[in-house]
Amino acid sequence: MEAEKAEQFYGMLLAMAQQHEGGIADLMNTIFSFLATKTDFYTGGEKGAAKKMVLDTFHRHESRALARQEKEAKEREEETRIKAERIAKKSSGDTEGGA
After folding, report:
1. What angle do CA 24, 29, 33 make, to 5 degrees?
2. Which of 63, 70, 10 is nearest to 1 (CA)?
3. What are φ and ψ of residue 47, in 5° steps?
4. Least confident span in 56-65, 67-76, 83-92
């Protein structure tokens, strides 16, 4: 499921998350409990298939999240550097012109 398609469920998932006082751990427990009791997620495939699917999905999203976090950190560093340069330039211009 691509991100655009997944986004149609974000509102519902956010509402569910907000109702779980134990946070993400409780939400995950609810999801896995649902899969165990209302679907054949654990029993419908070969032994270990469900675990592999969960881990593959986890790793795919983890790597995307970490890459996004790294990109955002670099962008913030660049913005900070540019602001510092502007301040330094302005300060040096003030001291040169005021002398």
Report:
1. 150
2. 10
3. -60, 130
4. 83-92
The model's pTM is 0.69
Lowest mean pLDDT among 31-40, 49-58, 75-84, 88-97: 88-97
b or e along 83-97 (b: 16 or more beta carbons within 10 Å of the residue's beta carbon)?
Answer: eeeeeeeeeeeeeee
In sequence order, the 6+-apart residues with CB closer than 8 A to the CB of 16 are: 27, 30
Task: Dig out the tokens for 49 from the structure.
Answer: 């298939």
Taking the CA atoms of 63, 69, 73 and 78 in sequence, report the sign of the dihedral they define. Answer: positive
Q: Tell me: the pLDDT tens digits for 3-57? A: 788 899 999 999 999 999 999 999 999 999 999 999 999 999 999 999 999 999 9
Identity (one letter) of the amino acid at 57?
Answer: T
